[in-house]
Write a structure and sequence with these properties.
It is built from no helices and ten strands. By secondary structure, the protein is mainly β.
């Protein structure tokens, strides 16, 4: 059973940067599309970026040009580099398989102060 462990969240000021990591156990990682999801306070979880096994990427409009998703298949890890952070980026960030999610991890909290 695949387990997902997110890390790297923190409290930062607007304009700052963070790099999130997601470590996945299990042999299926290298063949899955992987995504980063964000759940803002009082809102539904949304997919903000995803990456194919070969490295093709896609982003939601609100983060395009500021966030970069990448993956290391040999280490079963997916990353999210977040630059030029805005208060509206605040939320709990999760990684998971796309489009069919696996068991959700605990997420990592990102708080951006204005």
């Amino acid at each position: 059973q695949v387990q997902l462990v997110e890390s790297g969240g923190d409290l930062v000021q607007a304009g700052g940067s963070l790099r999130l990591s997601c470590a996945a156990s299990g042999r299926l990682f290298s063949i899955n599309i992987m995504g980063w999801f964000r759940q803002a306070p009082g809102k539904q979880r949304e997919l903000v970026a995803h990456i194919s096994p070969s490295g093709g990427t896609s982003y939601v409009g609100s983060v395009k040009g500021r966030f970069t998703i990448s993956r290391d298949n040999a280490r079963n890890t997916v990353f999210l580099q977040m630059n030029s952070l805005k208060p509206e980026d605040t939320g709990v960030y999760y990684c998971n398989s796309v489009p069919v999610p696996l068991n959700w991890g605990q997420g990592t909290q990102v708080t951006v102060s204005s």
